[in-house]
Amino acid sequence: MQAPVVGVLALQGAFALHVRALERLGSVAVEVRTPPELAGVDGLVLPGGESTTMSKLLDANGLFEPVAERLAEGMPALGTCAGMILLAREVLDGRADQRSFGAVDITVRRNAFGRQVDSFEADLEVAGLPEAPVHAVFIRAPVVEDVGPGVEVLAQVDGGRPVACRQGRVLVTSFHPELSPDLRVHELFLRELAA
User: Fold this and answer.
1) Hey, which residues are catalytic here?
2) 5-194 has which fold?
3) Quick check: 70 pLDDT over 90?
4) What pLDDT is stored for residue 185 in this prediction?
5) Fewer C-beta within 10 Å: the chain N or C terminus?
6) What average pLDDT does the segment 84-106 reach?
7) Integer CA distances (angstroms), 48 to 14, 132, 160, in order
């Protein structure tokens, strides 16, 4: 059986680190910048970066509608930080023209933990990853303010603020798993891809 091909949205942000993490796990990872590149993947990682810039680049590269169609068809996706914002149903504190895919029934608040200088790290218990805690890096991170009935909260900080969620085959995190040598979040996503 052929290994699934994982696309990493490569318009802006920390996409190269996701490619490296996926390759370390033995996956075929390709950078996605165009609709034909998207057509060849089985799942998609939407990395951290600047969500409004990424939204504009998705439109400029003719990718917004193709990604939306693939997500609606059930394509597995992993969104980290800005990727979580792009996959959310509703975005608070975003630009009026900012679009998101609505692939996960959550409301997120951009930069919920403050500015760059307020970035932090935390050890998280993540549902589905019963081993040692996941060391999570938060950089100008969003937080989930509201969760729809079909969403599973996988991890929380600050007494219950969701920072990792899953709905169907879409997994989102406020933090940057690509900045850690711990590959278990990527493994969790690859399990969704293989299911």
Assistant:
1) 81, 176, 178
2) Rossmann fold (3.40.50)
3) yes
4) 95
5) N
6) 89
7) 6, 24, 22
pTM of the model: 0.94
Is the pLDDT at 117 greater than 60? The verdict is no
Can you tell me which residue has the tokens 């969003």? 142
Which residues does 9 contact at the CB level (< 8 Å), separation at least 6? 15, 32, 44, 45, 46, 47, 54, 58, 63, 67, 83
Which string of DSSP letters, residue by residue, matches 64-128? HHHHHHHHHTT--EEEETHHHHHHEEEEES--TT------EEEEEETTTT-SGGG-EEEEEEETT
Q: Do residues 133 and 180 make contact, with C-beta atoms less than 8 angstroms apart?
A: no
* Domain boundaries along the sequence of the chain: 5-194
Average pLDDT over residues 29-54: 94
In whole angstroms, give the CA distance from residue 114 to residue 153. Answer: 22
